[in-house]
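Case study 2.
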Amino acid sequence: MFTQRHTAYKLTIKDIVSNPYVQREGEVDYVKVGDLQVARARILATIVNKMTFDNKSGFLVLDDGTETIRVRAWEDNFELIDNAVIGDLIEVIGRIRQYNDEVYMTPEIIKKATPDFFVLRKLELSKKKPVVKEKEEEKENENENPFGKDEMYELIKKLDKGTGAELKSIIEKSKLDKQECLKIIRELMGDGLVFEPKAEKFKVLD
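Prediction:
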């Protein structure tokens, strides 16, 4: 079993920047959204501005129609924003931070989205259920295949020698066909637990 990570809740930017930011010494900070303690979020927004500095750091300004927020990156994750283009609609999964009274996000995953996806997300958020996944659906998927997301997460972590676990090795060790293997990996990526630094190479987010 992998170590439990903080849930990446689907929120609007307004949910993040207009609610109290709680700092706790020795523990993970969070934004209090209703009854939720949100340390990680999953937002869908348009890039309205971009600034980079010496190809080592920079930020994106995102707008989802409710508010704006900066997504800030440094050397360890700069590549996530380097190819971003103003006007793109993107989904960002990352941690919520605060500095000098500004609440911002540091990205773990950034991926392009479609207008249809944006409409779907608006419908989801209108129901006021900021959740990442449906527990019943996850349980159903696990029952379909004994090699589930927990096992895949640990396998990728084990096979990664620094540059990422190769898909070919993952298929071989998991004894799954390519389609089923990729299905589980994509679910982990959707949960913000795994990312793809290069084509057909995967790494876990520690």
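The first helix runs from residue 13 to 17.
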